[in-house]
Structure formats: C-alpha cells, structure tokens
Write a structure and sequence with these properties.
With about 200 residues, the protein is mainly α. The protein folds into two domains: about 1-50, Orthogonal Bundle (Arc Repressor Mutant, subunit A); about 55-195, Orthogonal Bundle (Tetracycline Repressor, domain 2). The chain has ten helices and two strands; from the N terminus they run ααααααααβααβ. It has a two-stranded antiparallel ribbon with strand order 1-2. The longest helix is centred in the middle third of the chain and has 26 residues, at about 55-80. This is TetR/AcrR family transcriptional regulator. It holds the Pfam family TetR_N. InterPro entries: HTH_TetR.
Length: about 200
C-alpha cells in the first residue's frame, strides 16, 4: 500500500473527486473505468484502492460532497423563506433543489437506473451513510417549523424516492415538470408534514 503524507492524501483525494466528477458527468458511472480515473488523476491503480474500494464508492463520495454544497445554499433559501407555512416551505424547498440541479450536472443526470446500479454495487453501509446525510438535512427543516408525522427515516426514504422519480421527468418541458412535481408534492407532503391548519 502506498504511503502518502496527510497533505498528499488530501491533494490526491481532491484530484480524484474532481476528475471523477468530470468523467462521471461526461460518460455516466457505468461507462467510466477505474483505469480512466487513475489515468486522469495521475496516480497508480493501487493508490486508488488505498482511498476507495470501487468507482461506485468514489461516485457516492462525490455525490455527497455536491449535496453538501447544495444544502449550504438551501440553508440560505430556508432562511429567506422561513415565514411560509411548513408544508409550503418544504414544497418550495424541494422545487428549489430540483431547479438548483442545473448547477450540479452529475447529480442532475442521476436517475432510477443509476440508483438501482449503485444499490446493487455498493455495500449497505455506504448507502446507509448517504441516507443518514439526507436525514440530517430533514432535521434542519424542523428548525423552520416543519414537523414530520412519521419518523425522519421514513420521510427521508420517501423524499429520496421522489427525488429519483423527479429526475426521470427531465425529458418533459419545464412547465410540465413543475406541474407534475407540484401535484405529487402536495399529496405526499400532506401525508408527511403536519401543518398548523391540521
């Protein structure tokens, strides 16, 4: 196993994430090989495995990092819209995140096929860690008066399923996307979120 200083490790990890994001965005996760990642990064193949067990694990690390950036921006959105009723705040937040995907092409191109592939290839603990990150963000929504009728875990998995479904709408016009997402969100959020009028 290669030995790197902490500074070298961080530099290599950042380069792998940068090149991985570029390759995954351009070709999709299935078509990118570890050989292509290490060639673009300028490291030996053995070095790759001292950071990640698979290209799918790298993909999830990149996706998690991109989501964290989006969530930091989402916190600003929530602060600016905190006077909306809880259910409407959650709906507008979800629609905002979908529009924001334009800034994150790798996340935008993910669909149900990508999700199924990752679930098949990754160990359950990697998927569980990603779900935990998403539920942390729903915890943040509670600070803005959003109270879930079900547990955070169920709410998280429900909204993750919706997110993947919404990514499958990308062939539709923007107006149709907004209409369809609005209808689905109204129904789902009525079941998930308590509103003051309930």
């Amino acid at each position: 196993m290669p030995r790197f200083s902490d500074t070298e490790k961080e530099r290599i990890r950042q380069k792998m994430m940068q090149e991985g994001e570029r390759l995954f965005t351009t070709f999709g996760i299935k078509k990118v090989s570890i050989d292509e990642i290490v060639q673009a990064t300028g490291i030996a193949k053995g070095s790759f495995y001292s950071f990640y067990t698979s290209k799918e694990h790298l993909y999830m690390d990149i996706a998690g990092s991109l989501q964290m950036k989006m969530w930091r921006e989402m916190d600003e959105f929530l602060e600016e819209n905190k006077l909306l009723p809880p259910r409407e705040l959650c709906k507008q937040c979800f629609l905002w995140m979908f529009r924001k995907l334009e800034s994150y092409p790798m996340l935008k191109q993910a669909d149900s096929e990508t999700a199924e592939y990752l679930y098949r290839k990754l160990p359950p603990e990697v998927i569980a860690a990603h779900t935990k990150d998403d539920s942390h963000e729903l915890d943040q929504l509670q600070k803005y008066g959003v109270h879930f009728k079900c547990g955070i875990d169920i709410a998280t998995k429900t909204l993750q399923t919706l997110a993947i479904s919404f990514l499958n709408l990308q062939q539709d016009t923007a107006a149709d996307q907004q209409t369809i997402m609005g209808i689905i969100l109204d129904g789902v959020l009525k079941e998930l979120i308590s509103d003051e009028s309930d």
